[in-house]
Amino acid sequence: MALRINARRGAFASAMRREPTEPEKLLWRHLSNSQLNGLKFRRQTVVGTYICDFCCPRIGLIVEIDGDTHVEEDRDRLRSQDLQKMGYLVIRFTNDDVMRNMDGVLTRIVQIAATLPERRYTPTPTPPLEGRG
Q1: From CA 15, how far away is CA 9, in angstroms rounded?
Q2: What is the pLDDT of residues 34-43, one digit of tens each?
Q3: Do the Cβ atoms of 108 and 36 come closer than 8 Å?
Q4: 85-102 burial, b if ≥16 CB within 10 A, otherwise e?
Q5: Considering Cα of 57, then 77, then 46, then 13, what sign does the dihedral take?
Q6: Which domains, ranges and CATH numbers included, belong to the chain?
Q7: CA distances, 112 to each of 42, 57, 79 (Å)
Q8: What's the predicted TM-score (pTM) here?
């Protein structure tokens, strides 16, 4: 049975997808359409009670981009701990990292992703009928 997403939180995530920050737009250009080593990322997606910037559910990796004046380290630590309890690893980059060192950011994401096992295998529920597919 699939988990239901809080409607208000889902609507807020949808609004965030429509109005991304410049660093989010830039990173999404590299993460969308499984461009980065075939990893399928979702952006501004609800995980538990949180909205995560980028999430690769297959390996349980969450990538967060923190603003230049980000001062909520204690809150972020608790959030990361909660997400870790749900089976996710959270990595963080600053806006400046993304805007000035995209190659370094992408390299680090690939390095960390390579250390994470797939969380589960989900085969196609039914094979396509002959002549369809």
Answers
A1: 10
A2: 999 999 999 9
A3: no
A4: eeebbbbebbbebbeeeb
A5: negative
A6: 21-115 (3.40.960.10)
A7: 17, 14, 19
A8: 0.78
The Cα–Cα gap between 36 and 68 comes to 25
Q: In what order do the strands lie in the sheet with 61-66?
A: 42-47, 50-56, 61-66, 89-94
Output the CA angle 122-125-131, nearest 5 degrees: 125
Please identify which residue in the block is written with the tokens 């909205």: 51
Question: Following DSSP, what letter does each residue of 36-61 receive, concatenated?
Answer: TTT---EEEEEETTEEEEEEETTTTE
Query: What mean pLDDT do residues 19-28 have?
Result: 88
Task: State both tokens at 117.
Answer: 């096992």
